[in-house]
Design goal:
heterodimer, A: 325 residues, mainly alpha, two-stranded antiparallel ribbon, 72% helix, 1% strand, B: 304 residues, two-stranded antiparallel sheet, 11 helices, 2% strand, globular
Chain lengths: 325, 304
């Protein structure tokens, strides 16, 4: 029984971290229409950043500054945001798909750095031994899991509330305005490039926070955490849940993480031994098919974006006309 | 140094072949197709299947054209791969991209293309396995061009370069000398105006997929001929072909050719300074440099 509850806390903690990252992507794609092809890069920047700032010092290894936990986590968040700022500065003035290609590229580049820059990232072995928060105070593994789950849920709640406030503020309305009709927004004096850049940086910082929490949970980070599949998983979560709706993003995260975990479990249990080596591929095909099918048959997701009733009818018509073009 | 440049030119020729189709697709359908490089993988694996099938049916095909390791069987297989890959590109478009194009924006297609890439790559893993494969078990002997500095060239590499250049020339002639070529260029320039002039857009889109698919099939097969074949080939070539199209300017066929060589040579030279592990990041650095200094690419139109 305690085993099941303990596994459930593990599952929910991971799902909560995924949900945080999905909320970041929702700000990019759902509210601003930015295509982020390298979610895993910002997650990884946050994870490695937190680890290097807050991890234990090791011989022949840069970093290991052993900074206080919140400073290290904050540093990881800032590093992820800064990375997005550089990419955004170069690409947001250009064709929309340049951002997609560049963010995808930065994920590839970051993985190459993580694998090769021994002095900084520990290479393929990764970095280990992150001092987990409250680990010293709580010597019970199960209790630590519960406490950490509460931390993740608190952070998730705080980020949710902040994004809700953000997108319902004038800033959020401006974001949706440039998403729907950039020329009209510009005519009203909004600067699309600057708004997009802010959205990109804030969303990436949230993904960085997800990475920082992940490292503080596992106390370990390696290039295996930077594989492109994370980007696909997060997308599937957002598309299935419903872009432009935070409730949908979190629902999608729990749902997809559940499907992923269960399918992995089922494949290791039920598939014949000769197929075990292909289990990963089958899961990848599942995620890929899911993304494509959702886009074809239900692009708005399970919980679609709600347009506020207070909006005048004419504006809503105009919005739906412009998207149909 | 000279060896790096030569190797770069060879990789560049393969990237160029891949980039030609991508630049047309990105220009006409207006979306960055992340499933595109999987066409190289499809082509190379189709060639592999027929390359193993033909010698069983007609043993005479199994002799290599000395000094190449290329056999008659592989040459035939490559032609079949061009046709089948072109067809599969059209089928993928009809199954997925066309439906999404009709009701959603171009960025939804980018999402879908990632999903398609994931499916294709892993279906290949399921069928052929993770391990690397070769068309020919013969050892390709390199010819020493000079000893100091040491420069080695394999006959296969000369063949690859010659075939790539020949295909580019053929495409150039088609684009500049035939009515079909004019129609294609018109669509690339201005789709609505071309339609007014009586060019059927859907036919042209299908034609572009066929061109893209068949050139990618050749690129994939040639890469597998000079290196080896594994299911990650699409993933490996994705960023280089994107870099080539961006360097050349999206929509410019000649830009894509030149961009391919630039990316190939630059990556080759960079590996003289950087450890080989950083190779996958090189195209990204090239993309950043182009976006910084000349965002429209070498031959691209100015975009706001």
């Amino acid at each position: 029984m305690i085993g099941l509850v303990s596994y459930l806390t593990f599952f929910l903690t991971m799902a909560g971290i995924m949900a945080i990252i999905t909320l970041g992507l929702n700000l990019h794609w759902g509210y601003t229409g930015l295509f982020n092809g390298g979610v895993v890069a910002f997650f990884g920047a946050g994870a490695y950043g937190t680890m290097i700032l807050g991890g234990p010092s090791q011989p022949d290894q840069f970093g290991g500054f052993e900074l206080p936990y919140l400073v290290a986590l904050g540093g990881g968040v800032v590093i992820a945001g800064a990375l997005a700022w550089v990419v955004g500065l170069l690409t947001l003035r250009l064709r929309h798909d340049y951002l997609a290609i560049s963010t995808f590229g930065i994920a590839v580049a970051l993985e190459a750095v993580a694998r090769n820059a021994q002095w900084l990232t520990g290479g393929a072995r990764g970095l280990r031994g992150f001092p987990r928060p409250f680990e010293d105070q709580i010597d019970n593994n199960f209790l630590f899991g519960v406490v950490f789950l509460l931390i993740v849920l608190t952070v998730l709640g705080l980020i949710w509330l902040s994004i809700e406030r953000l997108v319902n503020s004038p800033f959020g309305r401006a974001l949706r305005a440039i998403r729907e009709d950039e020329v009209a927004a510009r005519a009203l004096g909004k600067n699309p490039v600057r708004l997009r850049l802010w959205s990109l940086v804030i969303g990436a910082a949230i993904m960085g926070a997800g990475g920082g929490l992940y490292v503080s949970y596992t106390a370990f980070v390696s290039p295996q955490d930077l594989l492109p599949i994370l980007t696909f998983q997060i997308w599937a979560m957002l598309i299935v849940g419903g872009a432009g709706n935070n409730r949908g993003a979190v629902l999608g995260a729990v749902l997809i993480w559940g499907v992923w975990t269960l399918s992995g479990f089922a494949l290791t249990r039920l598939a014949p031994a000769s197929m075990q080596i292909d289990a990963g591929s089958i899961q990848y095909i599942l995620i890929g098919t899911l993304i494509v099918c959702m886009l074809i048959w239900r692009p708005e997701g399970l919980l679609p974006e709600k347009i506020k009733k207070s909006q005048p009818m004419t504006a809503r018509k105009a919005a739906s006309n412009s998207t149909r073009e | 140094m000279i060896q790096s440049i030569l190797d770069g030119i060879l990789t560049g020729a393969i990237i160029s072949l891949g980039a030609i189709g991508l630049t047309l697709i990105m220009h006409i359908l207006r979306f960055a197709n992340f499933a595109y490089a999987e066409l190289l993988a499809i082509g190379a694996y189709v060639a592999l299947v027929f390359d193993q099938l033909f010698p069983v049916l007609v043993p005479a095909l199994d002799t290599a054209f000395a000094p190449l390791t290329l056999t008659g069987a592989l040459a035939l297989s490559m032609v079949i791969a061009m046709v089948l890959t072109g067809l599969s590109a059209v089928v993928i478009d009809a199954l997925v991209f066309k439906r999404i194009r009709q009701k959603a924006g171009p960025l939804s297609m980018v999402f879908a293309s990632f999903g398609v890439a994931l499916v294709i790559r892993n279906v290949i893993v399921l069928i052929f396995g993770h391990h690397a494969q070769l068309y020919s078990q013969d050892i390709a002997r390199a010819t020493v061009i000079s000893f100091d500095p040491l420069i080695l060239i394999k006959p296969d590499q000369v063949f690859v370069l010659a075939l790539a250049l020949a295909l580019m020339l053929a495409l150039h002639l088609i684009l500049t000398r035939t009515t079909f070529g004019f129609a294609l260029r018109a669509v690339a320039e201005n789709p609505s105006l071309a339609q007014v002039a009586g060019v059927r857009l859907s036919t042209m889109v299908a034609a572009v997929w066929v061109i893209a698919g068949s050139l990618s099939a050749v690129a994939g097969t040639l890469y597998a001929l000079t290196n080896q074949l594994n299911p990650l080939i699409g993933h490996v070539f994705l960023l280089p072909v994107f870099a080539a199209t961006i360097v050349g300017g999206i929509g410019s066929v000649y830009g894509a050719v030149l961009g391919g060589f630039i990316v190939g040579i630059a990556s080759g030279l960079a590996l003289m300074i950087l450890p080989p592990g950083y190779a996958p990041a090189m195209p990204f650095l090239i993309i950043l440099a182009v976006l910084l200094f000349r965002p429209q690419g070498l031959f691209g139109e100015e975009q706001q």
